[in-house]
Amino acid sequence: GQQVMQIPQYQHVQEGEDFTTYCNSSTTLSNIQWYKQRPGGHPVFLIQLVKSGEVKKQKRLTFQFGEAKKNSSLHITATQTTDVGTYFCAGRTSGTYKYIFGTGTRLKVLA
Amino acid sequence: DGGITQSPKYLFRKEGQNVTLSCEQNLNHDAMYWYRQDPGQGLRLIYYSQIVNDFQKGDIAEGYSVSREKKESFPLTVTSAQKNPTAFYLCASSIAQYERWELFFGEGSRLTVL
Once rounded to an integer, what is the mean pLDDT over residues A59-83? Predict the structure, then answer.
């Protein structure tokens, strides 16, 4: 079945350093989404990417969707303590309502 | 205030008992989902529903059952057949059309089997 893997599983950075998490799907995706889950909380939607090679920015966050629509990345520039949490990607294949979540990357920012 | 309400927030259950988790949304969303999250792990799909009176199994449906009799409601029953039910359960909904596919999550229900 469809699988979505994320690396790294954990990342500790000093405040001000950059951070990147990578997401890889075993199948071609129709779209991919990114979510953030704060400790003890529930996932909150960040962004959706639909087009091959698409790049979107939200302030310090940059999201990319691969040309083959099987991989994606999230890059945070100059991390802040408010960026702490687990970042998940979630992919959907065409013709289905089913979203498969990646394994997540837990980010810890050291002040 | 529009949103998704899950209840109860915490639930303790003895082995061999069935338990039903409630999920209600007033967002007028067509699609609803149940995910399970284990400590330090990702979200795994249990069941999802595209419309009323229709639902499909996700990747880990064994030991669970759902119903979708109303658009607003998608309760999940954890049966005694579920081997390891202790987990954090998340319900979500989505418009699922017009390129609006983002999932809105409830605050979750934490089930502990004693």
Answer: 97
